[in-house]
Each structure stands twice: as C-alpha cells, then as structure tokens.
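hey so u asked for the seq, here:
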Amino acid sequence: MMAADDNRIPEARDALEKVLQKDAKSSTALRQIGELELNAANYAKAADFLTRARQLWPDDATVSLNQGKALQKTGDLAGARDALEASLKQQPAQLPARLLLGDVYLALSDAKAAEDQFEASLLLQPNSLEGQIGIAKAQTKKESSAGNLIKGKIAFMSPEQASGEPLDARSDLFSVGTMLYVMITRRHPFDAPTDYETLMLVKSGDFTPPETARPGLNPELYRVIRKAMAKAPGDRYQTAEEMLVDVEQVMRLAFRPVGQTELQRWLADLSSKDGVPPLTREGAPEPSPTTVGPLRGGDGQESGLMLNLDDAVEIRSRDRPPPPPPTEVMARPPQFVDYVAVMDDFFADIDRRAV
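ran it, structure tokens below
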C-alpha cells in the first residue's frame, strides 16, 4: 500500500478510476483503489470498493481483512465480523485480524468470543500487549454483564426500553405481544446472532408481520398482536384490560368451544405430564373375601348363605368378616391451576403498576 501522505495517491486514484470506467469488474483496480481510500480514511468508499473486490476474490485473505477494517470504521459491525472471520478462515495465523476481530466482538457485546480471539493472538505472539489488554477488556465485560443494568430478555424488550427511554405499563404490553407472537408463529420477532444485533432490531421495532410468519389464522388474532407490538406506545393498547377485552373476543371468534369428552381427555393428558392424578383416580375398593361359621344345629354345611329363618343365627364376633381397609390418604392431593385466573391476575398487576 501507498502511505496516506504519498503525493502519488491522487494520480493513482485517477488512473484506477479510469480503469474502472472501462472495466467495472476489474478486481485489481477495485482492490487497489479500496486500499487507497482506506489509507485516506475514506472508510465508506473503501468499504464499497473492497466489498466489490471481495465478490470477485472471495478467497483472498487480504481483501477480506481490509474490507473488515473499513466496515468496522463505518459501524457495520456484523459485516466486519463476517469479513474478518472469512479472512482468518483463509489464513488463521493473522495477528492483526485476530486483534481486530476481538475488538469487533467486544463492540457486539460478545465478551466470550472476544476473549477467544485475544487468547489466540497470544498464541501467535505471546508478548502482544494488544492481546493482553484485549483479554482484560473481555473479562471486565463479562463481569459487568453479570450485573447488567438492562434486566430481562433482550428479545422481549420494548423499543423504548432498548433505547433507554422512560417506561410505563405499555412497555409490558409490548412484551406480552411478543410472547403471543412467539406462541402463534413459533419464531421470535427479533432474532439475531448476538445480543447487540438483537437489541438493534428491538430498538428499530421492525419485525416480520405475524400473518407473513404464519399465514392462515384468524385476522383478528393478527390484529391483536400487531397492536400490542406497535413501535409507538401511543399506538398500542393503553391498558391491560383493553387488551384483555380483545383477547377474549378473539378466543370466542377464532377458537371453537370444546365438549366435555375432549376436555376430559385434555385434562387426563395434562395430568400425565404434570404427574398429578385426577380426582377420579380411584374406583371402588375390591370386596374382601369373608367366611361365616357353621350353622347351628345344621347338617354340617359351612356356607355364607342363611337357608331359612329357623337356621338363621347371629354370627359370632370371631366369625365376623374383617372390617374394610381404611380409605387410602393420597400422598399428594390433586393440584389444579386456574390458568384463566392466572392471566387475569397478570393483567391486573400490569394495570396496578400503571397507576
């Protein structure tokens, strides 16, 4: 590469641009002018030229490394990560690429991956001061993450929470909408490889509409999810009770009522999963066999039947049948969860917090 203050840089840039005017796919010209722009700190232009050069030279480790440098400077951390990983895949023993990738992982809040890269750099150069400092930064990042001020699952945050803005109950309703989205579509609305990228998606509030993620359901169900997950708090449900009214309406319209037999089967299946027996788990106890002493004055028969009134006698106490066994006391009484009541309490709690 030429030095940034080389007087020949403008002339070289002009010459290379003329080459590109004749052949827009000249890989050599794209690579060289990209490196010139990178040295001149024109990072956006450098990223553009080097990205085009890498499309022509996907296996060139140097092109990928320089592209990663340019993208990191422009703030495209995910693109920089991919370019640097591609460069290291071609040439694993690159100290600059390892150190830069470690910095990129730190910016992406992936302290574990950053620490791995800095440790790998020390294998290449044991006395690398940059590698030692990087490991210290990664360890500090991991320790601070344990007591992160942002509480909860990032993928279930509201846009205002991801932006650090003041929160109210409508933020919780956004999270409820996110849970409904996951339950209905079986995918997360904000899904990315790292916490940083997930946080950026939540902050933008952009997600695949539920009717696109899983088509064919009741339109009113989609409407409830979209309204609960509106980016602006003013466009959402304002109270939990307001949302509950729509949810109950959807339950009546979109979900058919169940019969007693179907409900019984569902409860039995739930009981087997939870390990809690139903109330009707026991039938009547088996009768105990009994014997009756010989009839008085009889003909030697030993029978439990009273043949006639003349032969009927009071059974002696020793010949009485044993008493029935005591009723078994269940070790663990049946436990049933009123899920409707649980949801009502949940929404009521949100309303109380909003007051």
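Residues 43 and 70 are 5 Å apart (CA to CA). DSSP finds 16 helices and no strands in the chain.
lmk if thats what u needed
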